[in-house]
Design a protein that fits this description.
7 helices, mainly alpha, 5 strands, three-stranded mixed beta sheet, 185 residues, 9% strand
């Protein structure tokens, strides 16, 4: 009887191991597909931001605006350090510790959302938010999240943290038709 029980337990463990390996292989293949999709995005678009066209009179004064987003860009040196620290504290307090995706933050958010029984907290990093606000990503939520994560990792490989913060502050919508920190100020 004991031998039969051990054989059944061993068979169950073997089946679980095989199922886990198959699930891991499928997840890895899915991730590779998503990474390939994220590799198609042109990272040069990070610096391309839609802006409003301005009509200037002969004296050089602004006469009016034509369509587009109201935005004036600034360099990282022109953004107050307190504002940068406030952004990082509010949106991604582990910004300098991860490479685009904060797995610890994802686990924390998943646990808190599980405890609440609904989505109460997100886990997107500043870099993921920047990716989402720069490129048109897939509509499907889960696929968008995966592409966003892969794209965030690419951004972190190609740009420094200060460059990412600068791009974030110049791109993000601040409400009332205002884009970028300089325009909001």
């Amino acid at each position: 009887m004991l031998k039969l029980t051990l054989k059944i337990a061993a068979a169950i463990c073997l089946l679980l191991l095989i199922a886990g390996a198959a699930a891991g292989f499928m997840a890895w293949q899915r991730w590779e597909t998503v990474r390939a999709e994220a590799a198609e995005f042109d990272l040069a678009r990070l610096d391309e931001m839609p802006a409003v066209s301005e009509v200037i009179d002969t004296k050089g004064d602004r006469y009016g605006r034509l369509g587009g987003e109201i935005r004036y860009t600034v360099g990282i040196a022109d953004i107050p350090e307190h504002l940068i620290n406030a952004l990082i504290a509010r949106e991604d307090n582990r910004f300098y510790l991860h490479h685009g995706v904060d797995y610890r933050g994802m686990a924390r958010a998943a646990w808190r959302n599980f405890q609440a029984g609904s989505v109460e907290e997100g886990a997107s990093t500043i870099t993921q938010q920047l990716a989402r606000n720069t490129w048109d990503l897939p509509e499907d939520k889960w696929k968008r999240k995966l592409v966003e994560a892969a794209l965030a990792m690419r951004l972190e490989e190609h740009f420094s943290k200060p460059e990412l913060i600068e791009a974030y502050f110049n791109r993000i919508y601040f409400g009332e038709g205002v884009y970028g920190v300089e325009t909001a100020a």
